[in-house]
Amino acid sequence: MQWFMTFRIALRALARNKLRAFLTMLGIIIGVGAVIAMVAIGEGAKATIRAQIASLGTNVLVVLPGSSNQGGVRFGSGAVRTLVDGDARAMARELPAIAFASPVVRRQEQVIAANLNWATLVQGVAPEIQQIRDWELGDGRFLHEGDIASAAKVAVIGETAARQLFGNDSPVESVIRIRNIPFRVVGLLARKGQTGHGSDQDDTVMIPYTTMQKRLLRINWVHTILVKSVSAERVQEAEEQITALLRQRHRIGADREDDFTVRNLSDIAEAASTTARVMGVLLGSVASISLLVGGIGIMNIMLVSVTERTREIGIRMAVGARSRDIMLQFLVEAVVMAATGGLIGILLGIGSSEILKQWVQWPTLIDPAIVAIAFFFSGAVGVFFGFYPAKKAASLDPIEALRYE
Questions:
Q1: How is residue 58 annotated by DSSP?
Q2: Residue 149: which residues within 8 A CB-CB, separation 6 or more?
Q3: Residue 317 near residue 401, CB atoms below 8 Å
Q4: pLDDT tens digits, residue range 83-92?
């Protein structure tokens, strides 16, 4: 009952100065709203990065040709043609940490279907690319070993390329032409979406890599090899095994550098997630300053309130109120202001996040744990910054308080 009465007295005292109470809460409102909105932006960015990396396939490593050095000029990865399809087959056959491996040959080509044409990425791949990329089919079938062995003129098409060439019609069993060579579409890939740097993964046509090598490019080497380890825990082991195998196959001496590069997508994902996490913490920390400013504002107003209500405090003490009752009253007033500001700030933060998502198309993700922490933190701000004014009010001498004008 005492707590209920104290709460009613606190509400009555705040209601006497509604505008001042609202302006005092404004710092907490802005602080909590900013914290929730900034953390939502950071979490949304991390979730987007994880989804984009996952769309490339899990436990994936990329093997690239090495660099070259000509006349003191050093060229980057891919400058020399050191990878062949035999390397991919050897990885899948000999390395226990490798589940699948696929050579990849790619080139931007103009693809023609009837009276329509579209410039898209044509990729020569092995059937294992479907497991490596975790890419489902929307219709038809994927490439198989018979297509590779016979360098068959068949293709599996991505959703974007299919839409540009066939509209809403199914492309399966239709014919497309690449460099005036007819290819029969045997499958439609399910939608994958964009990569982390904004390129459309669905804007592609996949054909057997042997067909790409023999009929389109007339080469005997491959641009990259995509590899999938048997589990996430064995990615590092797979990377070491690939390095050892390729050094042996390419006859690289102990004193010579690798003529290839192995990149771990898990490392890229972790680096990107770490960057997003640091940005989220930074944004949240900057927004938290508003909470500190709001807490200082509460302390300032409560000190003013103690001064204004000195005579009231004296009267309450004279009629039997104890020091702890006075202290509790002012502490409850501070907590009520902070908690109310926290609730309004939560609504503001969630609303701001939704506006960003809808209008700016910025990915946001509301974490219920952050919402709860922000609310309890706002209450803690009220307790922390309200304690000193409450203690000051409780320590007033009743006689001196009654004399105060």
A1: T
A2: 210
A3: yes
A4: 999 999 999 9
